[in-house]
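A protein record pairs a chain with a discrete description of its three-dimensional fold. The following entry can be read in just this way.
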Amino acid sequence: MISSAASPGRAGGGVASLSEPDRDTGQGYLAGRTSQSRGRAIAPAYDDTFRPVNRAAPPIPKAHILPLVLCAGALVWHALQYRFVTDDAYISFVFSRNLAEHGALVFNPGLDPVEGYTNFLWTLVIGLLMIAGIAPELSSQVLGVGFALGTMLLAYRLVAWALDDDLGRRADTVPGEGPRSPHGGAWPLLAPALLALSSGFACWSSGGLETQMFNFWVTAALYAYARGSEPMRFAHADGDGVERGDGRDRWLGALGVLLALAAMTRPEGLLITALLGVHRVLANLLGARRLWRTRGELWCVGMFVLVWAPWYAWRWHYYGYPFPNTYYVKAAGEPPEGYALALLQNGIYYVWQWAWQSKAVFAAPVVIAGLLAARPRTRRFFIGSAMLLLGVAYLAYAARVGGDFMGLHRFVMPVFVFTAAGCAMGLWLLLGWLGRMLSAPPASENPEATGRGHVRSVRGLLGLLVAVFVLTAFAVDQVQLTIESLRWGNWGSDRGIDTPAYLRVYTHDRGVIGAHMRECFEDDDFSIVGGAGAQPYQGRMRAIDVFGLVSERVAHEVEPTHPRAGHNKWAPDSLLASLEPDFIFSCYSIHTRPDNPRFNCHPGAWLRRGYEQVTMRVPGLQQQGEYYSFFQRKGRALACPGVVTPPAR
């Protein structure tokens, strides 16, 4: 698209610099301008005939296919090291099973629906697969890895798109170097490689949760946002002030759908949507100096509303509240003095643990350079500034709500993608600068003849060495983190953050208890549990949890007292007793001998209310012993295998 009349580097006739956008029309670089010099017009550096820049994405180079396959294999292997389903995933599985069997998204069939999940789309998909006969323990892990692989590919395409910038390439070209290779060379491969090696990314490709589905929608939305916004930077504006761009409306329409899917998968999808809206407004103001909505922007908003609004209206009508029950667990009620500060401190520590364990704390300068150190209207600056805004805001949000109780950074998974992409682009940038400095030819030599070879050879060698060093160092560190996070006996909590090893054994033991007692329950039995996941799912029991995730009364009536994410409330015994439960599993002990239970509560509170202790042997428990003690309502005959005579009290 460079005019032959004024091609850069052509001898004779002036060389026009890249034109700035017109302040009135908002025309971008490709609009071209003429200027007068000594009464003679200088031809524009670029044709002013509009040629759509928003072309189809170029195919993946053949040389990149094998490395991408190796990255995929590394991720699958890494995820298989974890291969677990956490207890919270089973909460969604209960809803999914009731959808498959009863046609209702409820935790307790026959009772008023309570929205005890925050991952509607994930729960729906798992339920549909259960109708097809696929067990959720299998489908959730296969889907998790599948979405993670899709995210890795999108991260590669996003970095390749940002570095394969015709305008940026010409703007940054130095004499003698010539045009850069498409796709930014091999640097885009670094992003999926870093994700595959990351312990957190691999852990939550397993786990059974919606983490990687949400991550995929967010990354896909970023890619659609980048592709759909490209004409805004480059193309003409028509006389009516509305920009036209070939294919842009389709990309922005897809963006609206993807953001809606993200918001239906996790509530944080609305945060992503709002932040991208802010970024778009800023880009309009700073780039085209306007706030006028283009057809594509209206199309994006319309598609979002079309997909998201009917679902939101249905869920509000069905569950009776504008927010999920888990929101009220965290936000409803008046907390005690010092609670908010303690919650914030826990959240800051959670973010710090992510930065330290993911090594983002060391990569931050490179990441920020990769995202921001670019000409303002280049692709890299446009999408890099969006990722930086999303990343900073997302980490601040995570800190504000207290982080998460699950280790290896599930709650901030989208920031993994931003960091990996920024690292790839930052190293590409820094190695380019360094290569130019180290390869400058002697003054006696002809730069045109020798500069290109110097730059390419030095940059190639430095790039190879740096990439090998970064990947090797990161791989060694993350393998050690994976081994330690799964080490048997590593069950301690780090300021309320549980290790994957603990999450795995906790879920296993509760599932074993539930399966052991499944035939012991009657249809009208009602229980109080601690974790509302594996035990109620495997036991097929009607229940609520003391934390209030699946209890409307606990979520709305109990004050938050414990500044630990997901465990902010604990229902008082008086409220639980008013529900007249048949079994109390929230006050329990798992122990090594039948006569030495150590309860996590005050047993007398339930004994005085007409309950009695039950102890049974449950084969297969791993963490604390094979004897399980809890309380049941007196007069409820329990015909269950393994029951032992309770000790006299």
Observations:
- Residues 500-644 form one domain.
- The chain has three domains: 1-50, 115-332+343-485, 500-644.
- Residues 447-486 form the longest helix (40 residues).
